[in-house]
Amino acid sequence: MIPRLHFAHLPTPIEELPRLSSMLGGPRLMVKRDDQTGLAFGGNKTRKLEFLVAEAQEQGAKMLISAGAIQSNHCRQTAAAAAKFGFECVLVLTGQMPEKASANLLMDELFGAKIVNVFDRADRDRILKETFDKATADGKKPYLVPYGGSSPTGALGYAFAMEELMKQLPCEGSKSSQGCPDWIVFGTSSGGTHAGLVLGQRVFGFKGRVLGISIDESEDWLKEHVSKLASDASEKFGKRIELTPADVLANADYCRAGYGVLTDAEREAVKLFASREGLLLDPVYTGRAAAGLIDLIRKGFFKKDETILFWHTGGQPAMFAEKYQFDLLK
Ligand SMILES: *Cc1c(COP(=O)(O)O)cnc(C)c1O
To answer: Going by CATH, does the domain composed of 14-43+150-329 fall within 3.40.50.970?
Structure first.
């Protein structure tokens, strides 16, 4: 048995997006609501943390240490999980600290996490290691939750999410039945979500395609890194499955502006989902992924009779960070 805690609200709902679909004149669109996973405003990190926190407990850890950007959704969810399961939490956050904590950073503080700020990203790995070593020396028994929770253990969350999806929709059996998505589209960054879905696709026999829209990494890096992560994660099922870069579909056409930079494309996507479906995206991840999806639909990349499932990975609290709050409606 793979150690796992059960605190996510699963299965997350699947909804149709008929008004958006007809407005784009495109394929059938559905959304899987992993922004509703239940832990501290939800998001994709919850599924990973079910496995990561279980591993930390198994190792007798007493503290969770992780790292990310100031408005990291991953760090917010990690801090919440630490509070829920009685761990101390230290977060190494990169970038300029705002005068007043808002959005994710505000929540990190409410959950009682200790913040170590690193101004320059180049120092991040070194300071993370020093923080970890010091906690170890002080007898704090830390467990390192990797960036984005994207270790082989964390990736398992999305392998099982694929199984969940296939049970919810008519995806099982020899013929790919109507209603089962032809494509799954989502935002990919540290690769754990992507790796889990690709592994789940192989293990549970999903017949559609799994397309990650890059938030900040190159296509080559994603294919290489995601296939390795998925292969390593497969060992947890008992037998290694070798996945190759060719098994990974990634599109890095929409991340040129850089991580967290809001452009008209993200603004349009956020506004379209909000005004057509009453559905909120976030400015950094799902906004960018949806902008890619919308562009691909407009370009005729998908067939009109196909079904696309947009996997919502959460992140909406960032909308209320100073950096984005006054920028979204421009
Ligand atoms: C972390 C995150 C992602 C990216 O997931 P990875 O597994 O790191 O690739 C996508 N969307 C949101 C909202 C996130 O917080």
So the answer is: no
Q: Where are the domains of the chain?
A: 14-43+150-329, 45-148
| CA triple 106-126-262, angle to 5 deg | 45
Q: Is the CB of residue 289 less than 8 Å from the CB of residue 258?
A: no
Is 94 close to ligand 1, i.e. is its CB under 6 Å away? no
Cβ distance 292 to 213 under 8 Å?
A: yes
Determine the CATH number of domain 45-148.
Answer: 3.40.50.1100
Give me ligand 1 centre to Cα 139, in Å. 32
- Cβ 285 under 6 angstroms from ligand 1: yes
pLDDT in tens, 178-200: 679 999 999 999 999 999 999 99
Whole-structure pTM over 0.85, yes or no? yes
pLDDT in tens, 186-239: 999 999 999 999 999 999 999 999 999 999 999 999 999 999 999 999 999 999
